[in-house]
Amino acid sequence: MIVKLDSSRYAVDFSQVKRPGQGVMSMFSKRTVEVDAYAVGQALRAVLRHCSTLDVEGRLQVWNDFRLFLDRTDYEELRKKAPTLQHQLGPALEDEVLKLKASYLGAPVLRLHVDEGGEVEPGHGVLKVDWNADESGVPSAAGEVTVRLDKPGSPGRPATGAKTERAGSALLKHAQGTFALVSGLHYVVGRSFPNAGPEHIAIPGASGRINKRQVTIDVEGTMALISREPGESNPVSVNGQALAVGGSTRVPLPAELLLSNELKLEILPC
């Protein structure tokens, strides 16, 4: 999906984005290629894995300034989804930074541009990466859509490597640690697998008895909506009560989950 062009530019082929429940899209079916929030999130996560610059303490310091050049049609469609990008890309990107045990130099920002030279084909993009320590504000150039990806109200707040420091309304606790759950975001919980979406929480050390997408969690203030994925056969119980396949239950926090009769999870209010 990502091909390095030079030290600061990467070609993106959005047809290679593997979506949950789907195979890799055909490179020749351009009309089926979706350049949406999910695709952009996967591209940003992928490009971060190419960064190798270390700070003075020897910790990876990833880019925080991203410029995505698109075909005009793709740009116009993505521009309409700017609020979704603002809401969802920040947490997804921070997940990747934490996995890499890295840090930002400053507030992460995504800028969308039209490729005025006409060199970028539909379903493709060119992603330009850089570092930007200026946290005083992000001016927008003419014809540019600027999306700040940091936590609202805390410009420039860097990722620190501690998952629980992200703004959230609950914590998902397991034997290996905790994950912050942000109110209003949708999470899928299960064992790790390649090309999982940005909404996926992989539980470290989960056995093969744990499904890849066994249960979903939506936190709503002091409540949580727990749902069992359709078609997933391994059992799920919530506060000691079995949850039917495809079923949901809304419970107050704290709540206790048991996956496949072996993996205990707790959802705790912050």
Terminal residue distance:
37 Å
What's the order of the H and E elements? EEHEEHHEEEEEEEEEEEEEEE
Catalogue the unreliable spans.
Answer: 24-31, 135-139, 151-167
Number of domains: 2
Could you say which overall geometry the principal axes of the C-alpha atoms support? globular
Major sheet attributes: 6 strands, mixed
Strand order of the largest sheet: 1-2-7-4-6-8
The Rg value, from CA coordinates, equals: 19 Å
**Assembly status:** single chain
CATH homologous superfamily label of the largest domain: FhaA, phosphopeptide-binding domain (DUF3662)
The averaged pLDDT comes out at: 81
From the 3D coordinates, which CATH architecture of the largest domain would you assign?
Answer: 2-Layer Sandwich
Beta-strand residue fraction: 25-35%
Which class best fits the helix and strand makeup? alpha+beta
Q: What's the CATH topology name of the largest domain?
A: hypothetical protein PF0899 fold
Tally of helical runs: 3
Helix content: 10-25%
Assigned CATH class of the largest domain: Alpha Beta
